[in-house]
Amino acid sequence: TCIDILLAIILPPLGVFLKYGCKAEFWICLLLTILGYIPGIIYAV
Fold it and tell me: How many other CB atoms are there within 10 angstroms of residue 16's CB atom?
């Protein structure tokens, strides 16, 4: 939905957390967001 996409752009780890929970996908997205905001967005979307 539109809200999921907006969350993935504004806070990529939150969007992934809401979809997958606190699994490996969340931690990968968090790490990518810390290393560079754009890779986190790409991974989340």
Answer: 26
pLDDT tens digits, one per residue of 5-30: 888 889 999 989 988 999 999 999 99
Rg of the chain (C-alpha set): 9
Answer yes or no: are the C-beta atoms of 16 and 8 closer than 8 Å.
Answer: yes
* Overall pTM surpassing 0.85 (yes/no): no
Q: What CA–CA distances, in Å, run from 3 to 6, 19, 31, 36? A: 5, 12, 23, 22
> 14 burial class (0-12, 13-18, 19+ CB within 10 angstroms)?
middle
DSSP state of 22: S
